[in-house]
Design brief:
The structure holds two protein chains of two kinds.
Chain A lengths: L16 H29 L2 H4 L2 H9 L20 H29 L3 H31 L4
Helix pairs in contact in A: 1-3, 1-4, 4-5
Chain B lengths: L1 E8 L9 E8 L6 H12 L18 E4 L2 E4 L5 H4 L2 E5 L6 E3 L2 E2 L2 H9 L21 H5 L18 H5 L5 H12 L7 H8 L13 H5 L6 H14 L4
Parallel strand pairs in B: 1-5
Antiparallel strand pairs in B: 1-2, 3-4, 3-5, 6-7
The chains are: A mainly alpha, B alpha+beta.
Chain lengths: ~150, ~240
């Protein structure tokens, strides 16, 4: 009776870029849930129940950066402009942009079947992903790395 | 009861575009849609073309869209779909004539996953068959039931977008052999289905599972293949 191990080593299971990105999309979705929960907990601590409206909570939840909630009633936002929140927001930004852009590539692959067409779309998507991430990181870290005055 | 049967018609030698023809037929509620089509062909319009073979849900020849859903005409009763019935060819494959579609892209994809048993090892000493336990057999039991009717693949939005996508039926077949303890080409198949037009094109729409006349849990099987790619476990 066939009883040998039916476990394939890493190189023999078809774990290519395509499947790695498939896994990344699943894991990054979970990571986004975790990061957003951390941000919403932060919003509650900084006074979301009385000093923010729903839009502000969402803005902080998806991009926990004081610049994004300047219209709230929270008297002092400066204490929240810390490296911790910059790192949290950066992680969220990187994960969300990569997740979203990969989603676009997957949808594009459904409709573009030529190898060259796919290469062009992937190249443009990677350029878009890197540009959006760099712009976002600049905004998130500008005030911490280059304080005004 | 009287049944109104609206049938998709297209003859590439005559018609510039498709049209629908409506037939009013006296039928029992236990009649099958295939019986209605046979009646139309036999008594009303002999030019109506459709595939059929066993007429008992085993050969998979007569998969078609009945009131918008992929079904086997031989397994669908009038009482299942009501007295106003629209019959159309499968989506995503080129119509050859009336309800007949060109199945070549479907079978091309099927062939990609090496749909046959591969074992190069010598036979057991007694020269008889390679045995496996009931548990090992049960592992891929569901995916042995595929009859290649294409109801799943042609209900899949990813396949509608591109017939380069292997499609659920090919992946079900890959599952059937990859998880077979006697087969030795799991790795080869895993590499094939991990290509761009393979597993990654499945967006878990579940249409295939709903369409399968054999009730194979197709989306679950594809999920097991995805997991096997990550974990390497094919047992």
């Amino acid at each position: 009776m066939a009883s040998k191990s039916r476990s394939l080593p890493l190189t023999k299971r078809g774990l290519n870029f395509e499947m790695m990105m498939w896994l990344f999309t699943r894991l990054s979705a979970l990571a986004m849930y975790g990061l957003i929960l951390v941000a919403i907990a932060g919003a509650l601590i900084m006074g979301a129940r009385t000093q923010m409206n729903m839009a502000d909570v969402l803005r902080w939840g998806f991009m926990p950066n004081p610049n994004h909630v300047q219209s709230t009633d929270i008297p002092a936002l400066e204490p929240w402009a810390t490296p911790f929140w910059a790192v949290t927001a950066s992680l969220l930004l990187i994960v969300a942009v990569a997740h979203g852009v990969h989603g676009l590539v997957v949808i594009a692959d459904d409709y573009i079947v030529s190898a060259n067409g796919r290469k062009i779309v992937r190249l443009l998507s990677i350029i878009m992903m890197i540009s959006m991430t760099l712009i976002g990181l600049y905004i998130l870290w500008r005030d911490i790395l280059f304080p005004a005055g | 009861m009287q049944v109104t049967l609206k049938v998709f018609r297209y003859n590439p030698e005559v018609d510039k575009r498709f049209r629908y023809e409506t037939y009013t037929i006296e039928a029992e509620e236990t009649d099958r849609i295939l019986d209605l089509l046979e009646y139309v062909k036999g008594y009303k319009d002999g030019t109506l073309s459709f595939r059929r073979s066993c007429a008992h849900g085993v050969c998979g020849s007569d998969a078609m869209r009945i009131n918008g859903r992929n079904m086997l005409a031989c397994k669908t009763l009038v009482r299942d779909v009501g007295d106003r019935i629209t019959v159309e060819p499968l989506l995503g494959l080129k119509v050859a004539k009336d309800l007949i579609v060109d199945m070549e892209p479907f079978f091309d994809n099927y062939k990609k996953v090496l749909p046959y048993f591969i074992n190069e090892s010598p036979l057991p000493e007694n020269g008889r068959e390679r045995l496996q336990s009931p548990e090992q057999r049960a592992r891929f039991d569901e995916t042995t039931k595929c009859i290649l009717c294409a109801a799943c693949t042609t209900s899949c939005p990813s396949f509608w977008a591109s017939d380069q996508y292997y499609g659920p039926a090919a992946l079900v077949t890959a599952h059937r052999f990859i998880f077979d303890s006697r087969d030795e080409a799991a790795s080869e198949r895993m590499h094939i289905i991990a290509e761009t037009d393979g597993l990654a094109r499945c967006h878990t729409a579940y249409n295939c599972t709903l369409a399968c006349p054999r009730e194979i849990p197709i989306t679950k099987a594809i999920g097991e293949l995805k997991l096997a790619t990550i974990t390497g476990k094919v047992e």
